[in-house]
Design goal:
single chain; mainly alpha; 0% strand
């Protein structure tokens, strides 16, 4: 009898061990398949960024304009009219922004040549201070530099054609973004109905809650970040103007745009007016004053005002924010750095709703 019990016990233990081994093997296979799938997705995002960047902007815009869409829908206004109103608002915003950018760049291109004399004087001063032998410099410039190739790269026709190409590319991406947004708004209601047919009521409610949370966080982040960047830009323009530094609007525009990049954006934003001041006045009290003013403004707005306005905000770990900035810059370039925080926040909200991914969400979150 003891022998039979022992055989049965050994058989059960072996069966349990086989199940455990199979479960471990299955989890290992799932893990590696997940890594492979993630790598494939990243490659697709990087190689097809011409499509995915407008699509991402379209998704964010659809979230931003969803309250307006709901309001117009509650007033029994047809969906086509809703979309037309939203498209008109977007085109007006981009037209105003484009006009400011064009005016600023044109002013910069027109006025910058007057700094050539200051640059020449500064370079001569550096050569004299460092005691660089002019004979070697002259020999290098005459024999080592391909002036024809450089002239070709700096030719006016090349610059104009490149600028036009960038403008056309931007215009195409804007149209693609608007087209994506229209289809997203049109399909949003149908998507909820389709999801409701294949899942339970609780799962459908959970899906709706996740989308609502993403919409709320993205809207809060974009609105607050825009207001903070605007205030920072105007304060910086005030200091730039009172210290008599050129390119006030161009500097303010750069500060406004680059402040959307967390942590490192403000550093690059302040660099442009400081460099212009250095070229314009050299080592002077203006350079010290503008450096202190801009750095103080960025520190106060970024470290005191912004945390209070954002509150708990997107609840992302600072380390994860930095990693996401590097990753999305590698995937989509400078645009990826601007989109890094809202994309990571949206991914975090989705992971929170998946039980097996809550550990990953806990690592991403700051709370």
């Amino acid at each position: 009898m003891n022998t039979i019990n022992k055989i049965i016990t050994d058989s059960l233990m072996k069966e349990k061990k086989d199940r455990d081994n199979s479960s471990r093997e299955f989890n290992t296979i799932k893990f590696f398949l997940g890594i492979i799938a993630l790598a494939i997705i990243v490659i697709f995002l990087r190689e097809l960024k011409t499509i995915f960047i407008p699509l991402t902007f379209a998704i964010f815009l659809s979230f931003m304009f969803q309250p307006l869409n709901r309001f117009l829908y509650s007033k029994k206004i047809p969906i086509i009219v809703n979309i037309l109103v939203i498209v008109i608002i977007i085109l007006i915003l981009f037209t105003v922004l484009g006009t400011i950018v064009y005016t600023s760049v044109s002013s910069f291109v027109t006025d910058f040549p007057k700094y050539e004399k200051q640059l020449t004087t500064m370079i001569s001063g550096v050569i004299t201070t460092l005691e660089i032998p002019m004979e070697q410099v002259t020999f290098y410039l005459q024999n080592k530099v391909n002036w024809l190739q450089m002239a070709d790269k700096l030719s006016l026709s090349k610059i104009v054609s490149g600028t036009m190409g960038n403008f056309i590319d931007f215009f195409i991406k804007l149209l693609l973004t608007v087209a994506f947004m229209i289809f997203i708004i049109l399909e949003r209601t149908k998507m909820f109905k389709s999801v409701g047919k294949v899942v339970t009521e609780d799962e459908a409610n959970h899906f709706g809650d996740v989308l609502n949370n993403i919409e709320k966080q993205i809207k809060t982040y974009v609105v607050n970040k825009t207001l903070i960047s605007l205030v920072t830009g105007f304060i910086s323009m005030f200091f730039i103007a009172i210290f008599g530094i050129d390119f006030v609007v161009m500097s303010g525009l750069l500060i406004f745009i680059l402040n959307y990049i967390p942590n490192i954006g403000s550093i690059f934003a302040s660099a442009f007016p400081i460099i212009i001041c250095f070229i314009q006045y050299g080592f002077s009290w203006q350079l010290i004053a503008i450096s202190v003013s801009l750095i103080s403004t960025q520190m106060i707005m970024g470290n005191i005002i912004e945390p209070k306005v954002m509150g708990t905000g997107l609840k992302l770990s600072p380390l994860i924010v930095l990693i996401s900035l590097i990753f999305w810059y590698w995937v989509w370039g400078p645009v990826g750095m601007i989109l890094a925080v809202p994309i990571t926040s949206a991914i975090n909200l989705i992971l929170k709703g998946i039980p097996s991914m809550r550990v990953v969400s806990a690592v991403i979150s700051s709370d």
